[in-house]
Design goal:
Blueprint lengths: L1 H9 L8 H12 L9 H12 L5 E7 L4 E8 L3 E6 L10 E3 L2 E3 L7 E4 L4 E3 H17 L3 E6 H6 L1 H12 L1
Helix pairs in contact: 3-6
């Protein structure tokens, strides 16, 4: 309690981080892998690449200017592979999961709701598009696959990857 009161007196407007400390925290966070375990789509993509002798780096970090971002798989020199979860990235198309057809997400569907923010499907799409655009501006080829696409048609995904490599 005493420490908290001392800090309040020392920093009446709250503790402010310098640009240097913010950058250090950002770099440290960028080295953490989220989610901690690879998703099902990422694992299948990794297997596709391994079986076909395609070398890749998992969770390569990029500074996009507006945020840092980890690519699911990166193939040298400039190919970014993203496995977009059908739910978390709000697949707008009907898709098959576990043998059942799921209805695609509508633009105004609420995906995440918290006290601070409501995230709708269209917000997720805009963010994914912004990430893709920035990666391309940096000279990368970006291939995004829906998780259901990877699960249900891995050969089609492989052909797209091979085409990008050539």
């Amino acid at each position: 309690e005493k420490t908290r009161l001392t800090m309040a007196k020392k920093y009446p407007d709250g503790l402010k981080h310098t640009e240097e400390s913010k950058n250090k925290m950002s770099v440290a966070r960028s080295k953490q892998v989220f989610p901690r375990n690879d998703t099902k789509g990422e694992i299948i993509l990794q297997d596709i690449c391994k079986k076909n002798g395609i070398e890749f780096i998992k969770h390569k970090n990029f500074n996009l200017g507006f945020q840092r971002h980890q690519i699911d798989l990166f193939i040298e020199p400039n190919i970014c592979l993203e496995s977009d979860g059908d739910f978390w990235h709000a697949n707008p198309n009907n898709y098959k999961r576990n043998g059942k057809t799921q209805t695609g997400h509508k633009p105004n569907k609420i995906m995440i709701k918290s006290k601070q923010k409501i995230t709708r499907a269209k917000d997720r799409w805009k963010l994914d598009e912004r990430i893709t655009d920035e990666l391309r501006k940096q000279g990368n080829v970006v291939l995004r696959f829906w998780e259901s696409e990877i699960e249900n048609n891995p050969e089609k995904c492989l052909q797209k990857i091979i085409k990008a490599i050539k």
